[in-house]
Structure formats: C-alpha cells, structure tokens
Design goal:
This protein is mainly alpha-helical and about 90 residues long. The chain has one domain: Orthogonal Bundle (Arc Repressor Mutant, subunit A), CATH 1.10.10.10. The protein is built from three helices and two strands. The protein has a two-stranded antiparallel ribbon with strand order 1-2. Helix 1 crosses helix 3. The protein is globular, with a radius of gyration of 13 Å.
C-alpha cells in the first residue's frame, strides 16, 4: 500500500494481519464520511463477501474499532458509527 493513501482492498500476501487491514479499511471509510455517524456499519455477511474474509476476521476487526470508540453495538440492530462528539479521545 502507498503511504498516505487509504487502503481499500485486503492484501492476503501482506504481513499485516487481515483483520487489521479490514479495520483500517472501515476506519478510513468512517473518517472519510463514507459511513456516517449513527449509520450502520455493513453487515458481517456483506463484509465477508466484499472482502473475501472469514466471519472471525470481521469480528476481530470490529472489536478493534469498538475498542477505539469508533463503533458501538446496538443490541438487536447491529453496529453503528459513534458520532464524533461521543467518541473517546485517543491520548
């Protein structure tokens, strides 16, 4: 991947773990406003199909984004982007 450009695809031959690559892709989409605050992150099924990854990979990537405060689970509804004013600040 070229520095300064957001990753858009999974590179299965790269040393970086696939789940981290997927987290990077979704994070970039959130930061670019492609997935807006209060909107749902694409479903696990969609992410598996779109990026050719396993459900465990999607779960691991979403755990990273949840830990970063970028997304949150709404029980029975899915994962949603947290509005910027409610995100935890990275120190």
């Amino acid at each position: 991947m070229v520095r300064g450009m957001a990753r858009t695809e999974i590179d299965h031959d790269e040393r970086e773990p696939v789940y981290r690559q997927l987290a990077e892709i979704i994070r970039a989409q959130i930061e670019a406003g492609e997935i807006r605050p209060n909107y749902a992150v694409p479903s696990k099924r969609v992410l598996v199909q779109r990026y050719g990854v396993s459900t465990r990979t999607v779960d691991a990537a979403m755990a990273i984004l949840r830990d970063e405060g970028l997304i949150e689970t709404e029980p029975g509804k899915g994962l949603f982007v947290v509005p910027e004013d409610r995100r935890r600040r990275q120190v």
